Amino acid sequence: MVEENTAGNESSPFMNCIKPEWDENGKLYWPGIQNQKKSENAKAVLLQPPVKAIPVIFLPGVMGTNLMGTDEGKENDIWRGDSLGGVFLKWARKDGTERRELLNPDTTKVDNRGDINQTIYSPLSDDGKLFPTRRERGWGEVLSFSYGKFLSVLQGALTDDWQQALNNYGKPAPEKNGVLSQLVGKSLAESKYAEITGESVLTQQELNHFQNFLFPVHVYGYNWLQDNKTSAEGLVAFIDRTIDLYKNHCGHGMPFPAGQEKVIIVTHSMGGLVARYASQVSGAKDKILGIVHGVIPDLGSPAAYRRMKVGAKQEGMAGAVLGNTAKELMPVLARAPAPLQLLPSAKYLSGAPWLTVEGAGEDGSDVKLPQTRDPFGEIYLNKTLWYILYESDIIDKDEAVSQSNWTNYVRLVDKPVRKFISLMDSGGYHPNTYAFYGHKIASDGTLAWRKTSISYPKNIHESDRQLPNNYREIPLSFNRSQMYVVTSSKTPGDGTVPVESLSAICRNSEIKSILATGVEHQGAYDVSSLKDIKDRPALQFTLRAIVKMVQEIPIP
Predict the structure, then answer these.
(1) Which of 81, 247, 425, 434 makes a 20 to 30 Å CA pair with 297?
(2) Residue 13 — pLDDT band, cuts 50, 70, 90?
(3) Are residues 504 and 479 in the same domain?
(4) How many C-beta atoms surround the C-beta of residue 87 within 10 A?
C-alpha cells in the first residue's frame, strides 16, 4: 500500500491519501483501504485517476516496419531495425538479386520481435497493468532506432500530467508540472522554426478536460512492400480489435456511447496514405476520432522516381541500406506496390511537368513530362525511352526473363498502383485532420536529366572506369554517346517530400490546422526526452492536436 500523510484541518487532523494501483486486467483498485485506522476524525482519500481509454494508434512510414520471411515456414528476420548499424551491416553489400529475393511482398510479413525502448517517462509504468505491455501493443513491430524513443516519449507525454497531479495531491506546491501544461497558452506561430494555419492555442480548461482520459499508445506495423490498400484494410481490422480490447477485456472501457467507440491515429510518411485510405475508402472514418499526419507524401514525390532510376546513395547510410544504385533498388521496387504508390500523382504540381530531359526532343529541344497530365502513360509505363521509370533488363539480360519482368511490372502499376493513387487524389481527408510538414530542407520538387561530361585520370584502366550512380551514358548514332546526370530542383521540403506535394492538404477545408516546420523526413518525430519536447514544434503540434480532438467527448 502506498500512503501519503498530509496535514488536515480541524475536523480531520489525520488524512491518508491512498494511491491507486491496477491489476493484470487493467482494473483499478486501492490497496489496503480496509486496514485504515478507525478514529473519530480520520479520513481516507482515494485518489481517482482517469479510467476510460481512448487508444492512440501510430503508423510508421515506408521501411519503418520490421519484416520476417514466411518462405517454407521459416520465420527468419528479413528487415529488423534494432539498430541503424545492424541494418547497415546486413544490407549495405547485398546486390539487386539478393534484395529482390529477400524483399518480396509475397514471402514476408510483419515481425513483432524487434527491440522495444524500455524507458518510462511517467511516475507509473505503462508497460503492463495500467495498459497491456508495450509488446502486446505492437511496439516491437517498428524499427527501434527510428521510433523506439519517440514512442516512449509520446506515451509518457500522454500520461504525465494526471500522474504528476496524483503524485502532488495534498502538497502545498507541485514539485513538478506535467509536460503538457508547458504547452498551455503557447503559440507555435511565434516560433522562428514554424509557420502555422488554423492555430488554436491550448487552454488550461482543455488540458483539464484531456486529463479525464487514458491514452494507451498502440502501433500498427504493416508490410511496406505490399499494396497500401491491403495495409489499409488491415488497419480497419486492427482498429476493431483495439476497440474491442478496451471495450470488453482491458480496463474500464471507453468514454463513448455503445457502438460509437473511436481511436486517434498518428502517422508518419506513407503511413498517412494507409490511414487516409482506411478512413476515406475502406469505411473506418466513423471509428476514428481524428488523425495527425506527419510529413505525408500526399501527392507523391519525384524522390520515388529518382531512387528507382539511380538508387539512394546520396542519402548516406540510410541510402546504402535502401540501395545505393539502381541495380540494387530497382528490382525490389519494381514488384513492390507500396513504394511505387509514392510516385507523383496526376495532380502533382496541378499536372504540370516535373521531369525534364535536356535536348531529348527530335529537334534538340528539352522534353518535359508529363505533357498531358498522365505520368503513368508518359513515364511509369513507357518502355521506349531511356528515362522511363523501369528497366526490366537491369539485372536480367535474358530477353524472355526481361519481358516477363516487364509484363508483371505493367500489371502491377496499371492496376493496384494506379488505382490507389487515383483514389487518394479524390478521397479527401478525415474531417478531424491535423498535418505538419517540412519546409526548410532542399528536396526533389522537380528533376532534370542534364547533359554533362565526365573525365577520368589518364592512368586509370578502362575496366576501372565507373560512372557515378546518378550518371547515365546514352548511345547516339555514329558510335557517339551523351552523358547525362540527374539533378534536383532542391526546392523546400523535408529532404524527401517537397512542399509541392502538400498543396492538396493546404487547400482542403477538412484540415483543422497545418504546421510547416524545419523537420527532416526520416526524423520528423525525433525526440530524446520529455524535456526535449519544448524544442520540437512538430511534436508539440501533435500532442496539442490530440488534446483538441477529445474536447467534445463527455467526461466519464
Answers:
(1) 81
(2) low
(3) no
(4) 22
How many Cα atoms are found within 13 Å in the side-chain-facing hemisphere of 180?
A: 33
Residue 29 forms beta bridges with which residues?
21
Quote the CA–CA distance of 156 and 120 in Å, as a whole number: 7
Quick check: 447 and 489 in contact, CB under 8 A? yes
Mean pLDDT of 71-77: 74
Distance of CA 531 to the CA centre of its chain: 22
Residue 173 in domain: yes
Q: What angle do CA 160, 537, 512 make, to 5 degrees?
A: 90
**Same domain? 524 vs 385:** no
137 grid coordinates: 501493443
Residues in the chain: 556
| CB 103 within 8 Å of CB 70 | no
pLDDT reported for residue 8:
43
DSSP helix, strand, coil percent of the chain (3-state; round to 5): 35, 20, 45
* Residue 480 and residue 499 in one domain: no
C-alpha span between 117 and 82 (Å, rounded): 10
Q: Is the pLDDT of residue 34 over 70?
A: no
pTM for this prediction: 0.94
The cell for 129 is 497493468
Residue 77 grid cell = 528476420
- Could you give the CA distance from residue 494 to residue 167 in angstroms, rounded to a whole number? 40
The pLDDT value given to residue 11: 45
Number of independent structural domains in the chain: 3
Are 186 and 202 in contact by the 8 Å Cβ rule? The answer is: yes
What are 474's three cell numbers? 546514352
Q: Would residue 88 count as lying in a domain? A: no
CA gap 294, 269 in Å, rounded: 6
Residue with C-alpha cell 545505393? 324
CA dihedral 449, 454, 460, 465 (to 10 degrees): 10
Q: Which residues contact 409 (CB under 8 A, 6 or more apart)?
A: 334, 335, 390, 392
pLDDT one-digit tens code per residue, 162-203:
999 888 887 776 667 889 999 999 999 988 778 999 999 999
The grid cell for 94 is 547485398
- Residues 287 and 252 grouped into a single domain: yes
DSSP 23: -
State how far the Cα of 152 lies from the Cα of 263, in Å rounded to an integer. Answer: 19
Cell representation of residue 122: 511517467
Range name among 3-17, 71-85, 114-128, 141-155 with the lowest pLDDT average: 3-17
Note whether 229 and 120 are same-domain residues: yes
- Asked if the structure places residue 461 within a domain, the reply is yes
Residue 247 and residue 179 in one domain: yes
Q: Write out pLDDT tens, residues 215-249.
A: 999 999 999 999 999 999 999 999 999 999 999 99
Domain residue limits at 148: 56-66+112-295+494-549
Tell me the three cell numbers of residue 267: 502517422
Residue 91 belongs to a domain: no
- Answer yes or no: are the C-beta atoms of 342 and 61 closer than 8 Å: no
Beta bridge partners of 429: none
Q: What residue type is 344 in one-letter code?
A: P
* Grid cell 506535394 in the structure block, residue: 501
Same domain, 210 and 358: no
Is the dihedral angle over the CA atoms 399, 404, 408, 414 positive or is it negative? positive
Q: Is the peptide bond before 370 cis (omega within 30 degrees of 0)?
A: yes
